[in-house]
Amino acid sequence: MAMRQTPLTCSGHTRPVVDLAFSGITPYGYFLISACKDGKPMLRQGDTGDWIGTFLGHKGAVWGATLNTDATKAATAAADFTAKVWDAVSGDEVLSLAHKHIVKTVSFTQDSNCLLTGGNDKLLRIYDLSNPEAAPQEIAGHTSAIKKALWCNNDKQILSAADDKTIRLWNRSSMEEVKTLTFDTSVSSMEYVADGEIVVITYGKTIAFYNALSLELIKTVEAPAPINSASLHPDKDFFVAGGEDFKLYKFDYSTKEELESYKGHFGPVHCVRFSPDGELYASGSEDGTLRLWQTAVGKTYGLWKCVLPEDLGAENSEQLYTPTPEIKA
């Protein structure tokens, strides 16, 4: 009998959840941050979804959120024309970086000393966080709003995706464009996998995998519905994707075969990411919730407890493991 996937529901947001990110694994476990149109990004324990705190200070929808590797700093991008840097331990606002338009994306360097931002003014900006008064370095080239910008290749290069239907690779030191990918439709998401230098791109119903250094195509996979986000497992065995049909799909990376699909959200899925240990993946939706899904269904992990059939009474014999109650933030 097949195991039944029982996602953990993380409530607390009041509007669509549009971005999420995990920290690296720290001595205290790993953490999850979510960006929401309610303007109140939230920090949670990554393996359980337990609410830790809400970063208060934005005056508009938050479009992007990220944590540094050791989860000591958070950064958010918002419609109030600012990017903010936060102390992720105390929740205090550390910096507010004024922009000329809506900010959509934020990304820390590995040493947490620089912050990359992008948004509707079509510019990439690099802020030196040790000298926040200094003017940021600016990189121009995109002709429409920037949706996502990420450091890659040990912070020597930058990847950016924009509404001009391009993804561009930039040299950090020369600030010049190295290569451009052009698509028939706007790119909906981009994930960078440092181990293997892979960039995962979604557009339309397509999930595409490219070499991040050369932007050479590795493979593409067609999904049953328009996809808004995809994430590759840390072991690169499989990947998950979510989109307009409210479902989460899991595919085998090498064979492209669809392994599983689950419906749990009550709206389109906007973002999906694997945890750093690969044990679960998180999804954020138009329905205002985050959900955590097990990579190996039925395994005892976090709040999931595996119960073998012989350990259950006869009246519960069809239930293979106990679903946990919803987590209320």
From TrEMBL:
The residue intervals holding the WD repeats read 55-96, 96-137, 139-180, 262-294
What are the protein's UniProt keywords?
A: Kinase, mRNA processing, mRNA splicing, Receptor, Repeat, Transferase, WD repeat
**Top-level taxon in the UniProt lineage:** Eukaryota
Q: Which InterPro entries match?
A: WD40/YVTN_repeat-like_dom_sf, WD40_PAC1, WD40_repeat_dom_sf, WD40_rpt
Q: Which SMART domains match?
A: WD40
What GO cellular-component annotations does this UniProt entry give?
SMN complex
Which GO MF terms does the UniProt record name? kinase activity; RNA binding
- Name the SUPFAM superfamilies for this protein: WD40 repeat-like
Matching CDD domains, A to Z?
WD40
Keyword Repeat in record: yes
One GO BP on record is: spliceosomal snRNP assembly
Report the sequence similarity comment from the record. Belongs to the WD repeat STRAP family.
Name of this protein: Serine-threonine kinase receptor-associated protein
Organism whose genome encodes this protein: Stegastes partitus (bicolor damselfish)
